[in-house]
Amino acid sequence: MTQHPLIRNGYYGEFGGQFIPEMLRRNFIDLEQAFEDAWKDAEFKSTYADLLRDFVGRPTPLQRADRWSERCGTSVWFKREDLAHTGAHKINNAVGQVLLAMRMGKRHIIAETGAGQHGVATATACAWAGLPCTVFMGAEDMERQQPNVERMRLLGAEVRSANTGSQTLKDATNEAMRHWIAHPEETHYVIGSAVGPHPYPMMVAEFHGIIGEETKTACQTKGIKPSHLVACLGGGSNALGLFLPFLDEDIELIGVEAAGAGVESGRTAATIEKGSPGILHGAKTMILQDDEGQIEEAHSISAGLDYPGIGPLHAHLASTGRLRTAAAEDEEALQAGLLCTRLEGILPALETAHALAWTLRADWSGSEEVILNLSGRGDKDLKNYIQNPGE
Amino acid sequence: MKELMSILREDNRVNLSIFLTAGFPDMKTSQALLKVLANHPAVSFVELGMPFSDPLADGPTIQRASEIALAQGTKLDDVFALASGFRASCDKPLMLMGYCNPVYRRGVEAFVTQARDAGASGLILPDLPYASHDRDFRSVLEANGQTMSFLVSPTSTEESMDEAFEKSTAFVYGVANVGLTGDAQSVDRTAFFEGLQDHRTRCPIVAGFGISDPADIQQLEGFVDGAIIGSAFLRALGPIGESRPSESEAVQRAIAFLNLFTPHSQP
């Protein structure tokens, strides 16, 4: 992993690093070493590959979205991560990190969750592994993602509400980090997005790299020459998973952030578009902050994108121009999600709906081959969809 | 103002330091509390906490205190104003303690200059990596006569132990418990500090995290040069919730708390 050309001393360009209290330093030294060893170990990789196939249900299909393509005026393909076990891409990383934790002899798994998808995925992996699991979730998110809270509990996980600050993903992450500081030896913290101190961003990206690898294989089989890869950006795990194997190819990468009520509305989660460089959750990245360096609250209808930071790898790729960013507003995303349901028979997660929304308004010539990461299914968002049934 | 390192080395006792979140429970009371700390004989030096929205290393008490301070609009300039007021009333050293992001946001040079002008002795930034310190802080701190203190904990590697004692210029902050600020675990801290004694000649050691009463301090006698009490002091001011103590209540409670540490002297 340290061999990855993007990494230098734990930084990705000027972003990344390890801004952590001393009490966690040894954990990060151990984790970095353990992942590096595991990722080189054929046995670990084959166990992981077996699990992805038999437990997660991979590979997921690359499906041409015919009616969506017609609506966009160009060719659009869906990478169907919604069909992965538990209904989103999150399970790839959860299974990988839980395997790693077992290898490290950890006895307790903790995780943070926003929309609940990562929490469900981690609780699922822990049930499989027979490891106790505690999931931290913002009190507000517990309210708006109630079905996922119940699912986690059914899976045997303890769900702890984070009642500080905005009571969303940011605060759940703080609580999980604090728990880890207090219980460093027996615990492994399964971060759910490509955020946090190094090596998390790259490790999470590597565990999701299977999304891009499968896409590459499917494109070869189907004779597709992708011109654009599109994904929603919260912390950025699904996007990195798709992008990672394509970084050196002549393909446009588009990350769609959540504009909330509008990028300039003051109620947004469009971190790259609206933010500035700063330090959050142990990494230097793009963040939403005020003049005093206090972290601002993010706003999005989607609990999974409602985060005032972004993975430092994305901050780096955006700063070098490799990644192009856009933003979709709450209402636009909702309508795109509903349209996808009617046109394609796929109810997408509200997170994914942001990426879908962008493809509807992008300026296409008609000759593109667009791969959109359909990162998750929308059952958890039924309440929002039902309250806003569209036309 | 006395130099902190020499105070710590001067005599063979555990110097008491008190941590107060700037702007808690409000600016005026913070000011009054700093006056108490300036005058009380039990207190050797002070940590002034710079409130941050996402204090990763802090337990519930300091989290809540930071939240209250920020909700009332406490700004970095207010923190410096409090430090200046403290400096005008005594010659005890004052350390600014907080997180990296607000410091970088202000600009390291601008921040350190302001800290110097406010009469601070130095900084404690638990989330600052050594490499960032070397690159962004070291020469600026030196040029302005400001110190930096790093943390060591029972989980520290030999390497980072070494780095902490080499790079700290006031004291090394020994985290007595594995845990957050304010965690009340009854652990034997002496084993950890005993292991640090070989390093102690390089830089004084001050213990913190989870230290709350005279018995804790007594336990550390002979092992460390100072001890910091934060959460327990804030809790002593009154319940941290919706209702905040009045200024006079807070002052009285602060004095009563500090008197525990000097049973025979009057403030």
Q: How far apart are the first and last residues' alpha carbons of chain B, in Å?
A: 20 Å
**What Rg of chain B, in angstroms, do the CA atoms define?**
17 Å
User: How would you describe the shape of chain A?
Assistant: globular
Radius of gyration of chain A: 19 Å
N-to-C SSE series of chain B? HEHEHHEHHEHEEHEHEHEHH
The CATH level-2 architecture of chain B is identified as Alpha-Beta Barrel
User: DSSP strand (E) fraction of chain B?
Assistant: 5-15%
Number of helices of chain B: 12
- Count of folded domains of chain A: 2
CATH C-level class of chain B: Alpha Beta
Task: State the secondary-structure class of chain B.
Answer: alpha/beta
Number of helices of chain A: 15
Largest sheet of chain A: 6 strands, mixed
Please identify the oligomeric state.
heterodimer
Contiguous runs where pLDDT drops below 50 for at least 5 residues of chain A = none
Biggest pleated sheet of chain B:
9 strands, parallel
Q: What proportion of the residues of chain A is helical, as a percent range?
A: 40-55%
Q: At the third CATH level, what is the topology name of the largest domain in chain A?
A: Rossmann fold
Shape of chain B: globular
- The CATH superfamily of chain B appears as Aldolase class I
Write up this protein.
The complex is a heterodimer of chains A (391) and B (267). Chain A is α/β, with parallel strands linked by helices. Helix content of chain A is 43%, strand content 19%. Chain A has helices spanning 25-40, 42-56, 66-72, 90-103, 117-129, 139-144, 146-154, 169-182, 200-222, 237-243, 271-274, 312-319, 330-344, 350-361, 382-387, and strands at residues 7-8, 11-12, 15-16, 62-64, 75-80, 108-113, 133-138, 158-162, 187-190, 228-233, 252-260, 276-280, 283-287, 323-329, 369-374. Chain A has a six-stranded mixed β-sheet with strand order 4-5-15-10-11-14, sandwiched between helices. A four-stranded parallel β-sheet of chain A has the order 8-7-6-9, with helices on both faces. In chain A, strands 1-2-3 form a three-stranded antiparallel β-sheet, with helices on one face. In chain A, strand 10, helix 10 (237-243) and strand 11 (252-260) form a beta-alpha-beta unit. The N and C termini of chain A lie far apart (49 Å). Chain B has a single domain, classed as TIM Barrel (Alpha-Beta Barrel). Chain B has helices spanning 4-10, 27-39, 60-71, 76-89, 100-106, 108-117, 130-143, 158-167, 190-194, 214-220, 231-236, 247-259, and strands at residues 15-21, 43-49, 94-97, 122-124, 147-148, 151-152, 172-175, 205-208, 226-229. Chain B contains twelve helices and nine strands. Chain B starts with a helix and ends in an 8-residue tail after the last helix. In chain B, strand 7, helix 9 (190-194) and strand 8 (205-208) form a beta-alpha-beta unit. With 267 residues, chain B is an alpha/beta fold. At the A-B interface, helix 1, helix 8 and strand 12 of A face helix 3, helix 5 and strand 6 of B.
